[in-house]
Amino acid sequence: MIIAIGCDMVDHEITKSLGWLSNSKAIKRVLSDEEKELFNINKTARFISGRFAAKEAVLKCLGTGMKDGISLTDIQILQTEAGKPILNIYGEVKAIAKALGIENWHITISHTSNTSVAFVVAEGN
Known about the structure:
Blueprint: E1 2-11, H1 12-17, H2 24-30, H3 33-41, H4 45-62, E2 75-79, E3 85-89, H5 91-100, E4 104-111, E5 115-123
Antiparallel strand pairs: 1-5, 2-3, 4-5
């Protein structure tokens, strides 16, 4: 059963203007250690914009937005060798998802030359 859906879009120019490609403090707030390893291989606005959009889409599924106690690093998007995104959650994000009955996540991230968009489906029994 679908419990929630979330979608978010991020403009690559905004990502660049915020300095996310070079600001280590911003990167540390947005990306987990494993995501930072992927980012170091692919330092593009497209990569970090897609990850941020996906994390925002997850928060929309939870109905929380960016509230105190939620860390974006507790939402982790890794990928298979073929590039399929894999969503892992931790901490407060995991606790909220459990309280909502969310057991499975489905995620896709797409890009144009100017924007990244992510779509997330939260599923439970």
